[in-house]
Task: structure prediction
Amino acid sequence: MLENFNEIKVESPVDKLIKQIKELITTGQLTPGDRLPAERKLAERLGVSRSTVRDAIQKLEFYGILRTLPQSGTVVAGIGITALEGLITDVLKLEKSDFTSLVETRVILETSTAHFAAERRTKDDLAEIKKALKAYELKVKQGEPAIEEDLLFHLKIAEASKNVVLKSLMLIITPDIIKSFIQYKVCDDETEYKAFHEHQLVLKHITDKYSQGAAEVMRKHLHDVIDFSQLTVFQP
Result:
């Protein structure tokens, strides 16, 4: 009987704020280009700390829903990606068998982004990828879950590919990837350390502009997740 019960998760203040902002966008009370109140004013209105507001904004930027502009503050990004993200999530309603499809799609996208990133990356791109990898390394060494930091590293590679369609598709499937990784407990300490070393090698090939090597390492890097999905998700 125990397996019929699902873990009850208490929403954090960050999650509640994210839900509020997304609902305001969905209902049309916030539209693309609208500017959010300053962090301090939002924190006072909601009765939370500024760090809570900052964390929520950073996560929504991660998903392409908000964008922070120099001297303009935080604004709502184009609604297209947000709408598509919601549509894909509603269509998939990820059943167990869908996880493998999601992983296979990710492999197709990410081998391409790694290939193009190695050809097209700039110095600024490399700095962003290294920054994301450092954040991932810190979480791994602290023994904490690093799923979002892991995917941020991959999204920075997608940005470096200079292919906006590939990046957009990554943004669409990223929320479902995070949800599935948590649900199926894909990552543990051993796999996190292995993934970190593979990330380092992908970064090296991108730095060296070795596109074929970057794509191949990325494919191998994601192969363990494919094996996991086939062996674990489909077992009776």
